[in-house]
Structures are given as C-alpha cells and as structure tokens.
Write a structure and sequence with these properties.
The protein has helices spanning about 25-30, 70, 80-95, 110-125, 140-150, 170-175, 180-190, 210-220, 240-245, 255-270, 295-310; strands at about 35-40, 95-100, 130-135, 155-165, 195-205, 225-230, 235, 275, 285-290. By secondary structure, it is of the alpha/beta class. Strand 3, helix 5 (about 140-150) and strand 4 (about 155-165) form a beta-alpha-beta unit. Bound molecules: iron/sulfur cluster.
C-alpha cells in the first residue's frame, strides 16, 4: 500500500489528485476537464468598512491601497484586465478557461446597474466560465443575490465572504464592522441559489487561542459552504496591526504553529470543501511580518509534510453534527 493511503480509511477518490486536500486546481480540472485560472480584477470598488457605512478606518490589518493598478493611478477596464491576464496565463500556464475574480475591496458595494454592467462585461470575454466575487457578509442584499442566482443558471459563480473569525470579540477587535449573526444570516440567504460560497478565515488573530480558530472551523464545517481560503495574519506598514507589531504589543504566530493549526483545520473540514488558498503574502514594500510567510511554497510543503507524517488528510475528522 502506498504511504498516502495508509491510516484510517482512505483519501476520497473523487479528488482525483495526489494531495491530502481538495485544492481548487483539482476541483476545476475535475469539473471542466482543463486548466482553469482566476483572473484578478480591480473594478474600482471601495469598502463600506472604510467610508463610514459600516465603520471607518477599515479592518486593523487592511492597508487600504487596493491593487497595484489602482496605486499606479490607471485602472484599465474590466475587459482590458481580463485580456492581459488571459494572455499571461495562456502563455505561462497553458490555461484553457478562466474565472473573472473581482478581488479588490468590496465587489458588491455599488448600485445594481453598476454591478450588472461590470459582471456582464467580465462574462462577455471569451473563455470566461464565470465569476468569483469577493465581498463582506454585510454587503450582500437580496437584489445582488437574485442577480448572481440568475448568472449561476448559465455560469460558474462563486461568492467569497470575508469572515476571518466566528467569534464576535475578535471581529470587534479587528474592526470588521459585522458580527457572527450577520455572517450566518448571509450564508442562509445564499443557500439554494446555485451560487458557490467560499469563506475566508485568518489563523493567528490577536487574542485567539488554537481552540478558538478550531471552533471557527468546526462551525464552518457544518454550514453550506463549498470553499475556504485560509491564511496567517500578516502585519503591514501603515495599518493599526502593523503599529502594534512594530511596538511589540503583539506577536505573530510561528510557522510551526501555523502549519499545525492548518492541518488540524483541514482534518475537521468536509472532504468536499474546496481549499482555495492556504497562504498569503502582502505587498513587499510594506510587509512587516511574520518573515516566514513570504515563502509560500515552503509553508505549503510543510503542510503537506505534516499531513503525510500524521497519515491524515482533509475530512478525516469531519463531523456534520
Ligand atoms: S473589508 Fe476588506 S477592504 Fe474593507 S477594510 Fe476590511 S480588509 Fe479592507
């Protein structure tokens, strides 16, 4: 028996990969039969957590600068951004199909007409299979869900909700401007519309214990969520968190702790949940720490290595009750 199939039970065959978790690349290859890549788009949105609608100042870790394109002062059209991304991924990664990823700030924060125009523009590009739309739990009104539900009848539609933690005391500390109840309500309103839901969480948040983040994972494991993005807390210059880090008022999670916790989370999550991300890094010019987070490949290798040594994989400890 190969090492990868040892332990209690075996890895789910439907993953059709050699990993110990169900990564996004494998999910899309299984669904579409080709390489699919996300094309990041900055469509010029802002954020209700920065302009006073939800709160001011933004989340304590947010640098508020937006994409490099926006910083350069020139924001090309959605079509131009898509064509540029397509050209790159076609040449360098032999990609066949694409998902337009509305990534920067809160991509449902606009009038319905404005949203429809931007989403329609993205879907009009050849080889774009669908959309992935990053937003906040408190910025998804019924009319937006109706719009996305309509797209989902003919396209592959993901909604990405930033949650970070299920614990209200942490959300308050982070100045997230929404609470757990708002998140749970939004998850309920998305269900049954054909829209795939991806939730973002952060490991190593100030004041959170390992048990706190595992509790977040256990709750998410029982919800109708199809994907997850996990990353470590990053301190950036010019943010509240960055100042706390620079003055030694907080310490960041170690690589070993992060890797161990991510493996614990993966074991708890259902085997069907698509793992969209396990690392992240900030802009190099304002990145403060933790230093180990810069080497994303090393972090991923450590996660793979730990799961292998444990002889476990995503979903091995999943309980739906
Ligand atoms: S919700 Fe996102 S864009 Fe808005 S302040 Fe928080 S991290 Fe920044």
């Amino acid at each position: 028996m190969s090492e990868i199939n040892q332990g209690v039970g075996s890895r789910p065959a439907f993953w059709n990969n050699s990993k110990r978790y169900y990564d996004l690349k494998s999910f899309w290859r299984n669904r579409f039969g080709c390489k699919v890549y996300k094309l990041p788009i900055d469509a010029g949105f802002t954020c209700p957590n920065r302009d006073g609608h939800a709160a001011t100042g933004g989340c304590i870790y947010c640098d508020g600068r937006g994409s490099k394109l926006r910083q350069a002062g020139l924001l090309p059209s959605v079509t131009e951004q898509i064509h540029k991304g397509m050209a790159y991924y076609t040449v360098h990664r032999q990609a066949g199909k694409f998902i337009a990823y509305f990534q920067t700030f809160t991509n449902t924060y606009g009038s319905l007409d404005q949203l429809k125009k931007l989403y329609d523009e993205a879907l009009a590009s050849p080889n774009v299979l669908g959309l992935s739309i990053g937003t906040r739990p408190d910025c998804v009104p019924a009319a937006v869900l109706d719009l996305l539900e309509n797209y989902a009848k003919t396209h592959h539609i993901w909604l990405e909700l930033g949650l970070q933690s299920i614990h209200d005391r942490t959300l308050t500390l982070l100045n997230r401007g929404h609470n757990r109840e708002t998140f749970l309500d939004t998850v309920g309103r998305i269900q049954g519309r054909g829209i795939l839901l991806c939730v973002h969480i952060i490991v190593g948040l100030p004041g959170e214990t390992r048990e706190d983040i595992l509790e977040t994972a256990r709750i998410l494991a029982r919800l109708p969520i199809q994907g997850i993005k996990i990353h470590s807390l990053l301190a950036l210059q010019g943010t509240v968190l960055g100042s706390l880090y620079e003055s030694d008022a907080i310490s960041m999670i170690s690589k070993e702790e992060y890797v161990t916790t991510v493996c614990d989370i993966l074991e708890i999550l259902p085997p069907e949940m698509v793992i969209q991300r396990l690392t992240a890094d900030g802009y190099k010019d304002i990145f403060l720490g933790p230093a180990w987070a810069v080497n994303k490949m090393d972090v991923l290798n450590n996660i793979d290595g730990k799961l292998k040594r444990r002889q476990t994989w995503q979903g091995i400890r999943y309980r739906n009750k």
